Amino acid sequence: MGAPAGFENTLLRGAWSKDDGGRRVGVGGADRTVCIWDVDSGKVLYKLPGHKGTVTAVDFHPKEPIILTGSKDATMLLGEIEPSVPL
């Protein structure tokens, strides 16, 4: 399990989800996308496009399934993601 080959060369920022106790991780970087992984399965849940520059910031809302990303293209994107299923 893990990132596809070559992904490690583009990773710049990452964050653990907070609303579900850290069951997801979001990472972004030079490929201008943000990937959200399920920690337990190692599977990519979402690949979020939208930035035209390197992703320089990724963070999750502390209580809601919301992610905020920022980029060198001077944009910030806010998105709601499907909440994880409780154990």
Descriptive terms for the model:
single chain; 87 residues; mainly beta; four-stranded antiparallel β-sheet; three-stranded antiparallel β-sheet; 7 strands
Q: What would you note in describing this structure?
A:
The model has no long low-confidence stretch (mean pLDDT 84). A four-stranded antiparallel beta sheet has the order 1-2-3-4, with no helix packed on it. The protein has a three-stranded antiparallel beta sheet with strand order 5-6-7, with no helix packed on it. With 87 residues, it is an all-beta fold. A hairpin with a 4-residue loop joins strand 6 and strand 7 (76-80). 0% of the residues lie in helices and 45% in strands.
Quick rundown:
The chain has 87 residues and is an all-beta fold.
Number of strands: 7
* Helical run tally: 0
Distance between the termini: 21 Å
How much helical structure, as a percent, in the residues? under 10%
> Strand pairing plus helix content: what structural class?
mainly beta
Average pLDDT reading: 84
Helix and strand run: EEEEEEE
- Shape type: globular
pLDDT below 50 for ≥5 consecutive residues: which ranges?
none
Our count of domains comes out at 1
Strand order of the largest sheet: 1-2-3-4
Largest sheet: 4 strands, antiparallel
What is the radius of gyration computed over CA atoms, rounded to a whole number of angstroms? 12 Å
- Report the β-strand fraction as a percent range: 35-45%
